[in-house]
What we know:
The chain has 12 helices and 37 strands. By secondary structure, the protein is of the alpha+beta class. The strands form 6 sheets. Strands 6, 7, 8, 9, 10, 12, 13, 15, 16, 20 and 21 form an 11-stranded antiparallel β-sheet that branches. Strands 22-23-24-27-28-29-30-31 form an 8-stranded parallel barrel, surrounded by 5 helices. Helix 7 packs parallel to helix 8 and helix 9 (533-543) packs parallel to helix 10 (570-577). The longest helix has 23 residues, at 593-615. The protein is globular. The termini are far apart. The structure holds alpha-D-galactopyranose. Alpha-D-galactopyranose (GLA) is lined by residues 311, 341-342, 354, 389, 459, 461, 507, 509-510, 526, 529.
Amino acid sequence: MMLAACLAQGSAQAAPVEISTRNSALLLEATEGKPLAFLHYGSPLSAADVKSLTDGARSATDSYPAYGNYPENEPAMSVVMPDGNMTLDLVVAGPAARSAESDGSTIYRIPMKDRVYPYSVTACYRVYPDDDLIESWVEAVNNGKGNVKIMRYDSAYLPITGRDVWMTSLYGGWANEAREATEQLLPGVKEITNTDGTRNGHYSRGEVMLSLDGRPQERSGEVIGVAVEYPGNYKLRVVTDAGRRNRLYAGVNERNSWKTLAKGEKFTTPPVAFVYSDKGMGEVSRRFHKWGRERRMAHGTTPNPVLLNSWEGVYFDINEPGMAQMMKDIASMGGELFVMDDGWFGGKYQRNTDNAALGDWTVDTRKLPHGINGLLDEADRQGVKFGIWIEPEMTNSASELFEKHPDWTVQAVRRDTVKGRGGTQLVLDMGNPKVQDFVFNMVDTLLTRYPRIAYIKWDANAPIMQHGSQYLPADRQSELYLSYHEGLLKTLKRIRAKYPDVMIQNCASGGGRVNWGLMPYFDEFWTSDNTDALQRIAMQYGTSYFFPAMAMGSHISAVPNHTTYRSVPLKFRVDVAMSGRLGMEIQPKDMSEADKEFCRKAIASYKEIRDVVQLGDLYRLQSPFDGKGAASIMYVAPAKDKAVYYWWRTDNNYGTVPQRPALDGLDPDATYRVTELNAIDNQPIPLEGKSFSGKYLMSNGLEFPVSHSLDWGKRVDYASRVFLLEKQ
Ligand code: GLA
């Protein structure tokens, strides 16, 4: 199986490269002329550990295995040289270079080259010491004359030296994103891949947790969190051999995506992020959240606003009085932003349903006679900000854009066109610079012409439906997926350079684009098209493994729910929505005055706790995936003076006793006063206004009623509780 290439031990030129964070360390050995060797990733190392490991106390393995010399081994990279040679033999070509970045991170670059061919690969590591996060990627350069074909090009390779390694991954589908799967890694290969082409978050996620010592725990145990920071097709695979040694490979899914490198061309793989913690999955999540907010998201340290999105309220039925009424209603409930969703554009082709006009981004004045400015004036009058939906990477065969530029779409030669949503949707080839300019100019025009637009919802509702680029030459067709995402990222970078302040939501048929590759350009994502509160608990819980609450669009919607047709009480819907970035996705004019009043109060309460939810530390207390009849999380402010505790009953069978878990993350010595938010019971519950020590709460929890005490006729199923804890 996998070769543990024994490398020179204790040689005079041995050059350890120690890349450490506050609570973790990666140790490599970069000796010129030898393969780059991996010695350790995990707990921090002492000077004695480093010395002994470098002196050969433990056999090193190749840190970036290449295909060819021991072909039975699983490679991280494989190439075809210009003369047809399929072997790659990489050795360290010089000392590691270190550069300090302006954001406090440090980049290490270790040059490697083929022993014979003019082909080089640089192993790159970027370390964020305070976040305990290390990114890994490679840069390949063809220094020779002929073309090199790169057939496989993982960003990262990691031997995992745990005793009993378990993997937690996320799977699902449209409207059912981010369900948890946990399994023990047994001999064989476990692969998690994405092949959608444009999106990558529905069926699986490019992030996993690896628990090194048995079944993953929230609060204890060694865990490595891994996240592929790429918006396109990814692949994560773990190869476990008979000796239960595990090797992780992570990066782009190379399926039908080989890359040709001509003379002098360079190819950079996307980064893969690693976090190690010995404090369980919870701590790994908190590390990712903090790093994400502070380093990886647009405006990740400024809380996101409470909004109303028009989609579930009116779908395509956009018109001026309707939009004005929605703006007035959300303003009256305390909302801060109104987002006009799909249906506002079109000329020759009208956007009355999902089968026309994508690409024709001019306002449909038959629906909106006073145009966007009319709506912006109304938003000003109501005192809310205004946002707008676009789907820039797409078109319909029924559109003026397609009539003018049929050559801009993804389309294989000599094949019938494969169409998506509405029977007409087509994907624009983002690899084509003309398409990139078109998309940039469209957004540029919108934001220049209407500078009061504060928010964009950027959607993507089709996968790559046929492999074919009308832009790429015949011998580069395999680069369709790579060039699509290179073009997309380039365009987003251009937009962000010119419009750093606008808020942008990342949406792709719901949670199809929840990945760290895109988040630098976005403020948040639409977690799922499924807004059913009960199912949302699981989806948001799974999504929280790697993404913070402030990024998770979480909306109160109508019942019966438009996806599941389930009716759960308004309080329950509000209590779930309030655990993420709160919003509404409903027709307010169909709500009763009592329901509006309940939401008005809840929005006011949310504003009080918003900083804790959106910027605080998440502690997961009870998993909905455990089947214990309840789910629970809490957020704690960094100063530990304020916390919000959520509890939702997920199993409503008579006679079941749902869990009320102990709290976490509090200051054991502090005293916290309990206030129930969104209370509906006839009387305040006995806990109301009482104080407890952090220590008591973290071992006993709170004993609140698991159902609501209401008059007959007003009783509800699916009880839920939200408590504010304030330090006295
Ligand atoms: C996608 C999005 C929805 C909505 C529709 C509009 O499905 O996920 O939120 O914007 O498109 O067509």
